[in-house]
Write a structure and sequence with these properties.
- By secondary structure, this protein is α+β, with helices and mostly antiparallel strands.
- Among the domains are: 42-143, Orthogonal Bundle (Arc Repressor Mutant, subunit A), CATH 1.10.10.10; 149-270, Rossmann fold (3-Layer(aba) Sandwich), CATH 3.40.50; 285-431, Alpha Horseshoe (Serine Threonine Protein Phosphatase 5, Tetratricopeptide repeat).
- Helices cover 53% and strands 11% of the residues.
- It has helices at 2-7, 69-81, 88-95, 103-117, 165-180, 190-193, 203-210, 254-268, 287-300, 305-321, 326-341, 347-364, 369-382, 386-399, 404-415, 421-434, 439-451, 455-468, 474-483, 489-503, 507-519, 523-537, 544-553, 557-570, 573-576, 592-600; strands at residues 43-46, 49-52, 57-60, 63-65, 86-87, 127-130, 134-137, 141-143, 149-152, 156-157, 186-187, 214-223, 226-235, 241-250.
- Strands 9, 10, 11, 12, 13 and 14 form a 6-stranded mixed sheet that branches. Strands 4-3-2-1-8 form a 5-stranded antiparallel sheet, with no helix packed on it.
- A hairpin with a 3-residue loop joins strand 6 (127-130) and strand 7 (134-137).
- Helix 11 (326-341) packs antiparallel against helix 12 (347-364) and helix 14 runs antiparallel to helix 15 (404-415).
- The radius of gyration is 25 Å and the shape is globular.
- It starts with a helix and ends in a 5-residue tail after the last helix.
Length: 605
């Protein structure tokens, strides 16, 4: 019973709208406008359509038309070949490489593409068929000039004091934050830009991997109260220097230096400024508090119990040094969210503390996009107030439309619980485009491929995340879940075991391992793992998801439902964010108690 239900795929709708009349905000599909034309370096205009190859998004005016990955690949194969006719065999080889598919599969995919675009085969506006030959794009295709793009690398620390690492990283991070807010400029996120720290990688390779046209690199040397900063803006294509400068200043001038560097980039890349104000914002005058914040956030991203505890300690120290440091309060909100999502704190308690931290940040600075996003998270998964939550996320996106963390939170904590996966998918693609070397962001995209019925794409995406950071356990956790729909249970078990090993055997990873063992027919092993969780729960917190997923694998539906109910009551975020759509709960759909839970979450009929 459990195996069959867990293998039934969910299909991603080909159009941007779905019939979800029971979901607040679902009727307003054009509402979240995120300027997706900035997301990639390959963009096209096709009559009234704008196609962003990097983000995998098609727009008609402000309407986002979401296509499944295969359908989007078909469209891009035709667009890139326009105005030529593309033979059917050529499309089969391009869209389905190394797979055996027939003409019927191609015809069905063409039909789905036409339906999504509102095209008619009898009077085609976009896609014409030439009988017995192939297909071609009807209107002229205009290749759009890519917008300026940049990666800001971490500044090399040449100081004698090696404790300055965080200071040199902070220089680059503040510049990234300032540039991200500028319309008309694509800025690579910190995680990906900093992936090359300490590595002897050629600028051309960095540009190719990050898909950027320019790179900023530099160095910093501190000596007493003096600082020397050098910076150079390099054009990737020919590695010539567009601009370079050296600054010898007092430490108190560090923010002015950052602002001058940011303005030099804006001038050289011809980015239009809408306001005459400093680009780099001074979030704190206390450099030690700033360093502690950077250390704390780095620890939190590892999402192990030990790293989270260390991150919290750093952030508390930062706030003690500067209680008015709004960013440090947003860091605390992120700590509580991560602790809840990965099962290290009772969600209902963590969400309240995250909300308090987010509100503290907003009281200090209501222009912080991340703080609005975190407050939106608390409204969504804490109060099930989806309308107010979406308002907060929209405000966050207005303040910083290119922030990867805002898109990440919006998709995972608002769109996903409401079952609006067709909208979360382009959000996740957008995040990966801005942060391509982030294991966390790639794994999130892989999860969406899995739950929308594309397990092979999910597996490939999770393996990419693992290649980016083999020490992170979350991609292995999600990879185990992705293997199950394909019947590759031994590989699911191996991935779950690796997640257990890397995480220090957290309750969630043990529960998932029990689930995988049960699906593989290893009932005895699964029950042993379930008993391990029960024993642990007598002395420590075990999140309901861990117990629920183990019971679901064993087909114990009554116990599964009880744990789901407990998870919603305790705000177990992994249950809250998946209850409406995940195949795991398919056996419960007809149960009145399941329907009552959806109504409690304001997601019912």
């Amino acid at each position: 019973m459990a195996e069959s239900s867990l293998k039934a795929p969910l299909r991603l709708p080909e159009g941007g709208a779905t019939s979800q009349t029971n979901t607040p905000g679902s009727g307003d599909r054009s509402a979240p406008v995120h300027a997706t034309e900035r997301a990639g370096t390959e963009c096209y205009r096709l009559a009234d359509l704008m196609i962003d190859a990097g983000a995998g998004v098609v727009k008609r005016g402000e309407e986002i038309i979401v296509l499944s990955p295969l359908t989007f690949s078909l469209l891009m194969a035709l667009v890139r070949s326009a105005p030529a006719v593309v033979r059917r065999q050529g499309l089969l080889e391009t869209v389905w490489p190394n797979e055996f598919v027939n003409d019927d599969t191609l015809s069905q995919r063409v039909r789905l593409l036409r339906e999504a675009l509102g095209d008619l085969s009898e009077e085609p506006r976009y896609l014409a068929a030439l009988r017995g030959w192939g297909y071609k794009i009807v209107p002229d295709v205009e290749r759009l000039e890519p917008l300026p793009s940049i990666a800001v690398l971490p500044f090399a620390d040449l100081s004698a004091d090696t404790e300055n690492d965080c200071f040199s990283e902070g220089l680059a991070e503040d510049i990234i934050d300032a540039l991200t807010k500028l319309p008309g400029l694509r800025v690579i996120a910190r995680t990906s830009a900093f992936a090359f720290r300490g590595k002897n990688v050629d600028i051309s390779e960095i540009g190719a991997r990050l898909k950027v046209a320019t790179v900023l690199e530099g160095s910093v040397r501190r000596a007493g109260s003096r600082i020397r900063v050098t910076a150079q803006l390099i054009k990737v294509a020919d590695q010539c220097h567009l601009w370079s400068e050296r600054y010898d200043r007092d430490m108190t001038d560090v923010f002015a230096i950052q602002d001058e560097i940011a303005r030099a980039i804006v001038e050289k890349l011809r980015v239009r400024l809408t306001e005459d104000r400093p680009l780099v914002k001074r979030h704190t005058e206390n450099l030690e508090a700033r360093n502690l914040f950077l250390r704390g956030r780095h620890c939190i991203l590892r999402v192990t119990p030990e790293s989270l505890a260390k991150g919290k300690e750093y952030l508390e120290q930062a706030i003690a040094l500067d209680p008015g440091y709004a960013l440090a309060h947003t860091g605390m909100a992120e700590y509580y969210w991560a602790s809840a999502f990965w099962g290290f704190m009772i969600g209902s308690e963590a969400v309240l503390k995250a909300r308090s931290a987010a509100l503290a940040a907003l009281q200090l600075d209501d222009t912080l996009a991340e703080a609005h996003a975190q407050f939106g998270v608390s409204l969504a998964v804490g109060d099930f107030d989806w309308i107010r939550a979406e308002q907060e996320f929209r405000r966050a996106l207005e303040l910083n439309p290119a922030s990867p963390i805002v898109h990440y939170y919006y998709g995972m904590n608002c769109l996903r619980p409401m079952g609006r996966l067709d909208e979360e998918l382009p959000e996740a693609r957008r995040v990966v485009d801005l942060d391509p070397l982030s294991a966390r962001c790639n794994a999130c995209l892989g999860y969406l491929y899995e739950v929308t019925g594309h397990p092979e794409l999910a597996i490939a995406q999770h393996q990419r995340a693992i290649d980016l950071d083999p020490s992170m356990y979350t991609p292995y956790f999600l990879l185990a879940a992705a293997y199950a729909p394909t019947g590759r249970f031994d590989e699911a078990i191996a991935a779950a075991q690796k997640a257990c090993e890397l995480s220090g055997r957290t309750a969630r990873t043990v529960g998932l391992l029990a689930w995988a063992c049960a699906l593989a027919g290893r009932q005895g092993d699964s029950r042993e793992l379930l008993e391990e969780l029960r024993a642990r729960s007598r002395t420590a917190y075990v999140p309901p998801f861990a117990m629920m997923v183990a019971c679901a694998g064993l087909g114990e539906m009554e116990q599964t439902l009880e744990w789901v109910e407990k998870g919603i009551e305790e705000r177990d975020l992994m249950i809250v964010c998946s209850l409406k759509f995940h195949r795991l709960y398919a056996p419960l759909h007809g149960h009145p108690r399941y329907q009552a839970l959806l109504r409690k979450m304001n997601l019912g009929d």
